[in-house]
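User: Fold this one for me? It's Ribonuclease P protein component.
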Amino acid sequence: MSKAVGNAVVRHRVTRQLRHLVRQRLDRLPAGTLAVVRALPPAAPATSAELGRDLDAALRKLRLSAPADGPC
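Assistant: Here's what I get for Ribonuclease P protein component.
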């Protein structure tokens, strides 16, 4: 993760949040999917809910995931 996101404490917090959020969404991805999640500076002050919404939007844009409230 880039130092532009913040100091080491912030970068590790964002990394843990993203790891947790991606883990919750793995069942929505096709088997064998490889993904790189890159955190940008606005991720530093973002809440887990905001990061989750951004991750869901990115997956929808890539058509790798069904909407959270719809069938997979």
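One thing worth pointing out: Residues 8-25 form the longest helix (18 residues).
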